[in-house]
UniProtKB/TrEMBL annotation:
Disordered, as annotated region: 1-47, 62-82
Protein location: Mitochondrion inner membrane
Pfam families, per the entry: Cyto_heme_lyase (PF01265)
Name assigned to this protein: Holocytochrome c-type synthase
A Gene Ontology term for the protein's cellular component: mitochondrial inner membrane
Length: 260
């Protein structure tokens, strides 16, 4: 796939040289496009996810949670999102059925910690990409954006992902036809003094679409991932941001590097 927005991230977990990308890829928590009973509507994870060990569980999994670098979307606090602990993640997979969609087998307990590391690593990469998109707005207000809500939508192919797959079929030497293994929609609160949002005064809601792709193994045999992060095309300002972002390199090459 050829795209200026794609960022390749190396897997932060040590694997053997023969381990395949599919063993750790994807978001192992529960997904869906609509809120379900017992799920937190802000992240679609079970609201009361237990730290307790499962009946029949063979390994002791860590119960400590890692605090992310992502501010929560509450303008009144400075809290940050926390990632589920490996035990919570395992409990979520048990509720989900803990079936690997690629093999149809149960996800082994000793793979859960690696999955949590990769999950957290990819989410941190997503946030850094969003901060890059939001940079010009942050420079005006001197206030960082916050993450209000995120939702996994692995079964809903984005139009952009579908288009890249078509291009990969037509022009395999230039594009990849591989589909993303996951998709997230993140709702970001962008600081905006002119906003009329009564629920979050001084902020504007901006939706981002993120497609997760498996990359080729690196020279050490470790899996890599490509993140395609961009504002959703559901507002004029987001469409303008995308147009500006992807035309700037061309304009800079042919008409000079000075930005307007």
């Amino acid at each position: 796939m050829s795209s200026e927005s794609d960022k390749t991230s190396r897997c932060p977990v040590s694997h053997s040289g023969t381990q395949k990308t599919r063993e750790t890829e994807g978001c192992p928590v529960m997904h869906g496009s609509k809120p379900q009973e017992g799920l937190n509507p802000l992240n679609h994870i079970p609201a009361n996810l237990s730290h307790e060990r499962q009946l029949g569980q063979k390994l002791d999994l860590p119960k400590d949670r890692t605090t992310s670098s992502i501010p929560k979307g509450n303008a009144q606090t400075n809290d940050f999102w926390e990632y589920p602990s490996p035990q919570q993640m395992y409990n979520a997979m048990v509720r989900k059925g803990k079936i690997d969609p690629n093999t149809g087998e149960e996800i082994p307990e000793d793979a859960v910690e690696s999955m949590v590391f990769v999950h957290n690593f990819l989410n941190e990469g997503c946030w850094q990409e969003i901060l890059d998109w939001e940079k010009k707005y942050t420079e005006v207000t001197d206030i960082e954006p916050k993450l209000l809500q995120f939702m996994g939508k692995p079964s809903q192919l984005s139009p952009r992902a579908r288009w890249f797959s078509i291009l990969g079929t037509l022009f395999p030497s230039q594009f990849s036809h591989e589909l993303p293994f996951d998709r997230h929609d993140w709702t970001v609160l962008r600081p905006d003094p002119t906003s009329t949002n009564t629920e979050h005064p001084g902020y504007k809601k901006v939706r981002y679409v993120i497609d997760f792709y498996s990359g080729p193994d690196d020279e050490d045999g470790l899996p890599t991932f490509n993140l395609d992060v961009r504002p959703a095309l559901d507002s004029v300002s987001s469409a303008k941001d995308r147009f500006t972002r992807w035309t700037e390199p061309v304009l800079s090459e042919y008409f000079g590097s000075e930005k307007k």
